[in-house]
What we know:
By secondary structure, the protein is mainly α. The protein has helices spanning 2-11, 14-18, 45-70, 85-93, 100-110, 114-128, 132-157, 161-164, 180-198, 209-228, 232-257, 261-292, 304-337, 355-362.
Amino acid sequence: MTHILKTLNSWFWWENIWMPINCTWANYEDHDGLVFPKPQHLYATIPLAFVMLLVRFFVERCIAIPLANALGIKQVKRVKPQPNPTLEEYFKECTKKPSQAEMRRLAKKCNWTVHLVEKWFRRRRNMEIPTVLKKLQEACWRFTFYFLSTIYGFAVLYDKPWFYDIWLVWVDFPFQSLLPSQYWYYMAEMSFYWSLLFTLGMDAKRKDFKAHVVHHLAALCLMFCSYSANYVRLGTLVIVVHDCADFWLEAAKIFNYAHWENTCSVLFVIFSIVFFVTRLILFPFWLIRASAYYPIYYSTTLVIAYFFFNGQMLILQCLHIYWSYLVFKILRKFIFIQKVKDDRSDEEEEDSVSDAEEQSLKKGSKNGCEASHPLLNNNNY
C-alpha cells in the first residue's frame, strides 16, 4: 500500500511541488519515534466525518433542544398546502411571490378565491423556510465545535515557542516532526468541514449556498495541501485565528433567535471586535508575513508550494477586507439606527392564526421576522 501511494505521489510531482531540492519522500519516513506528515494520513478524515455527524446529532438533540425550550423557542408546526398542480408549477417555474394581478389570474384559473391562492403560496413558501428551532440547532452545533476547537487550539499552542516567536515556525523546515496534538487538530477540522459538505442538502439553505460550497472546498484543499507540505505549524495558527471569532457569531445567532436583543447586541459587538483584530491585524501582519517573508531566511529554494500558499493567503485576506467592510457597515447602522431590518430574512407564519393576525405578521410582527441584526443570518464569515 505504501509503495502504491508513493507511486501516486510521484505521478503528481508531489516532491517537485512541495519539497525543496535534495528533499525526497525518504526523508519523511518515520524514525526514532518521530512521525512526519503524509498525505495518506488525511484519508481518515472521511470516516471521521461520519463520527462528527453522530456528535452533531447528539448536540442537536440533547443540548440544542433543551436550550431552545429554556429560551422559549418551540417547534412550529407547518401546515402543508392543498395539492394543486397548477399553483405548484407556477411556484417552481415562475415566482414564489406572485403579484396581485397574477394572484387573481391564478385564482380564476383554479376556480379558487384570491384569499385561498394567497394562503396556498404563503404555506408553500413556509414549507421551504427552516424553522427557528432548526436554525438554532445548527447554530448550537457550530458554536459547540468552534468553541471547543478554539480552546483546543490555544491549549496545544500556548506552550509552543513559535506561538510567541513566529520566526520559529520555519526552524528545521521541512524536517519538522508531527506532534499528536497537531495531527488531531487537523483531523478534527477537516472532518468537520467534510461533515458540513455532507449535510449541505439537509441544512437550512440560505442565499449564499454556493459560497458555502466554495468555502468548504477551499478550506479542505488548503488544509490538505498545508499538511502534505508540512506547513503544519503555520496551518494550526491559521486555524485558531479563524475559529476564535466564529463562535461569537454563532452565540449571537442563538440569542437572536430567542429575541434576547441586549445579549445578542453585546455578542455581536464582541464578534465584530474579534473579527477585526484577527482578520485585519493578526492574519496579515502576523501569519501572511510569516508565510511570505520569513521563509527566504531559512531556504534557498522557494518551491511551487510557497507561491501557491501565499497566493491563497492573499486571496483570503482580500475576502477578509471585503467581509470587514460589510461588518463595519452593519455595525454602524446598529450603533446609529439601533433597529435594522434584515433583508435576507423570510416571513415565518403559523397557519393556525386568524386573518387579522396574518395581516399583522405581514407588517413585520416580532413573530414573523427572524432577526434584528443583518449579519446574524449571513454565514460568509
